[in-house]
Specification:
Length: about 550
Amino acid sequence: MGEKKNSAVLQTAGLLMIAMIASRVLGYFRDSIIYFKFGQNNLTDAYNAAFSIPDFLYMVLVGGALSAAFIPVFSSYIARDDEAEGWKIASIVINWVMLLLGICVFFGYIFTPQLVNILVPGFTEATKVLTVSLTRIMFIQVIFICLAGISTGILNSYRHFTSPALGSVLYNLGIIVVGLLFATPIEVMWPGHGIAGFSIGVVVGAIIYFAVQVPALYKVGMQYEFSLDWRHPGVKRLLALMLPILISLSASQINLFVNQYLASGLAEGMVAALRSGQRLMQVPISIFGISIAMAFFPTMTAYVAQGKMEEFKKSTFTGLRSVIFITVPAAVGIAILREPIIRLIFEFSGGAFTASNTTVTAQIVLFYSISIVAYAAIHVLARAFYSLQDTRTPVMAAVFSIVVNIVLNLYLVRIMQQNGLALAYSIAGLYNMVVLIILLRRKIGRIGLKALIKSFVQVTVASLAMAIVVVAFAAILGATIGVESKIGQILQVGIAIAAGAGVFGVITLAMKMEEADVVMDIFKRRLRRGKKTVEVEEE
């Protein structure tokens, strides 16, 4: 039984990793087009700032708390062959989300200028006007992206992953295609507003994202009814699960607002630069940290339910060590290759994103990379507490870390400008991780810290050896083939990463690290069983 569970975990992790990689690649392609066309300046500052309010609504209502709570509740009804009640809960959730969202969008649309003044007071008046226009356009997409988020939760409960995955691809393609079609005509009619084409693209992309999932919803037997019965036992259970996560997410979003508020008073383009830097930092966290945490979560929960606490500890820290094993070298690699990577993604001949933009963003990435390991580990640690039916502890730890972040932001921005904001974010993440480890040890007893520290030291040694190879290859390739062309940039980054990964893999396998075997199994199973997995999921 244990071997079957482990196989399922590794298979799920591999699938999620591939989905995350595809999403990130398309997201960066989208961003590279936007920065090529408009550069890193007040236009992209406005575009990124315009996302903040709609993003807040999505994360609070659907993207974070609801998605984390809905799947377990809905799935429990499906597992008990009580689909009618499950669909009733889904209907109630949809109705309440749409009602609350409608109210928020209505008032948000009316008071957009005031909200923009609060969130980005340092923008020039012209940039504020543009931000208001873009925000009002993007409010529309929240309705469809929220519907898509709920649909994804329903389909995942039925082990159907294809439509949501296709929807995320089409979402990005919609932004790119529509953005390119509308940007130039809008620029001609309203000079300086051409970037609004990509805001329209966001709306179209969100509509497609939801629409592509509708046939799959009918296929699994969708049953909708109009009901606002919040007293339903399933809805009450969902709300109980949601509340602590909602508090944590709201606090986290407030922290992002504070970052944006402070960045708006810096030089033009810093809001965009910080967002670009954080997106690059999030790549290994999303692909590996979240994927592994999500894959181990059901197993951890099952062990707690069965009272198998030793197995729970082992599963938790296997997941944690696996995350550390991947994200330490990823953080080192990003820190070393930060400038070549950013140049490759955003800097094109004839484009508006310049070499000076690359330098500024690369400095931000350096400070963000310090906490990649911490933020990836937090996903595993938080789910360990969730498995123990303790949502209060990780939420309180997150809230305190956000307070630390804000205090450091206010201090460091004065002496380090945008780099200070990135450093504050990293220090807060490290603080959060350490607090969660200490509190988990207090809750469940000895948790194998010595083994964890030993693993971290081994991975660090291997990563330092990898760093030497990466630096050497990047320097040699840069000098011999040059980095003026995209081919040269691709070769420099690609070969340096491949050489570094090879060295890291050889060293960790020679050390006979358990994590190396776990991670290798994830990728082997994904490659070997990819086709079979999709067939099983769609049954």
